[in-house]
Design goal:
The chain has 8 helices and 9 strands. It is α/β, with parallel strands linked by helices. The protein folds into 2 domains: 2-153, SPOUT methyltransferase, trefoil knot domain (Alpha/beta knot, 3-Layer(aba) Sandwich), CATH 3.40.1280.10; 168-238, Trp Operon Repressor, Chain A. The strands form 3 sheets. The protein has a 5-stranded parallel β-sheet, sandwiched between helices. Strands 3-4 form a two-stranded antiparallel ribbon. The longest helix is centred in the last third of the chain and has 19 residues, at 201-219. The structure holds adenine. Homodimer. Residues 1-224 form the tRNA methyltransferase TRMD/TRM10-type domain.
């Protein structure tokens, strides 16, 4: 998977992602993250990339030329027109299922805006996907791009040490994950549930599934209509 982040703050993206699991995956050659500085494509000697909005109003708008220049150099280099994700609170809300879809791509471009946004004309020309990471407003698209890269990367085969670990986690089948415990067996007078110490895998699986259903009903009842529940589980929730 190759990520190409078009940004005015390349160091923010690179410093934030070259650590931990993502850093190791890069070393293994499973991922590559490049940050392309939009300012390198500025069209004036002062390297300015923003200007006042036509029609007036607060703040500055990123000019179309530098963004288009950065995109064109990249697509020439790749020899194709890649999928371009523009991070904006006006976009479709990011989700685990969208992450699964993106994890199958070979190249993904993230376009990060700043100030009051980017000139609409260049967005119309190059953007294929408008994506938000939630209903709140941030100062730029870099953090959303990093959130998405983190989430997508852990779905790329080989990135997580254990491939099955992305399979039985929160949002799988629209259910939250069951609670986890490790040593010690008793902590502050609270014991690990008996069944997890029993070694009986059938009972453990049954308990975990039940906990997932109960948790989802408690914390995210909005997910339940999308979960594939048995008649018995539906009954359990009525009690
Ligand atoms: N840029 C500013 N806020 C954002 C958000 N919530 N999601 C994506 N991009 C953004």
């Amino acid at each position: 998977m190759n990520y190409h982040v078009l940004t005015l703050f390349p160091q923010m993206v690179l410093n934030g992602l070259h650590t931990s699991i993502i850093g190791r995956a890069e070393e293994k050659g499973l991922l590559h993250i490049e940050a392309i500085d939009i300012r390198d494509y500025a069209e004036n000697k002062h390297m300015r990339v923003d200007d006042y909005p036509y029609g007036g109003g607060a703040g500055m708008v990123m000019q179309p030329g530098p963004v288009y220049g950065a995109y064109q150099a990249l697509s020439d280099r790749l020899g194709k027109r890649p999928r371009v994700i523009y991070l904006t609170p006006q976009g479709r809300v990011f989700s685990q299922s969208l992450a699964e879809e993106y994890s199958k791509e070979e190249d993904l471009v993230f376009l990060c805006g700043h100030y009051e946004g980017i000139d609409e004309r260049v967005l119309e020309l190059i953007v294929t996907d408008y994506v938000s990471i939630g209903d709140y407003v941030l100062t730029g698209g870099e953090l959303p791009a990093m959130v998405m890269i983190d989430c997508i990367s852990r779905l790329v085969p080989g990135v997580l040490s254990n491939d099955v670990s992305a399979e039985f986690e929160t949002f799988h089948d629209s259910l939250l994950e069951y609670p986890q415990y490790t040593r010690p067996e008793t902590f502050m007078e609270k014991s690990v549930p008996e069944v997890l110490l029993s070694g009986h895998h059938g009972n453990i699986d049954k308990w975990r599934r039940e906990q997932s259903v109960i948790r989802t009903a408690k914390f995210r009842p909005d997910l339940l209509p999308f979960a594939d529940l048995s008649e018995k589980e539906k009954e359990l929730l009525k009690t």
